[in-house]
Design brief:
single chain, about 90 residues, mainly alpha
Length: about 90
Amino acid sequence: MVIEILLNILILLTAIPVGYLLAWLCKDELVDGRKWFKIIFLCLFVALILSFIFYRNLNALLAVVCMLIITFIALLKGQDKKFLKK
C-alpha cells in the first residue's frame, strides 16, 4: 500500500516537468491555443469532480490530475511574456 502511494505521488510529480517541457517545445501554440487550454482545463476539472463522485477509481483520478497539471502549466506559461519572448 505504501509503495502504491509513493508511486502515485511520483507519477503526479512527473507531470510538472512534462508540462514545462511541452510548454517549452510548443511556445507558439501557447498563444494561439489559449482559449482551448481554458476549455480543456474546465472540462478536465469537471471530469475530475464527476469521476471522484461517481467512479472513484484512483488510476482514473490520477490520469485526470496529471492532465490538469500539464494544462495548468500551459495556461500559466501562455500568459508569461518573458517565457514567450525567446
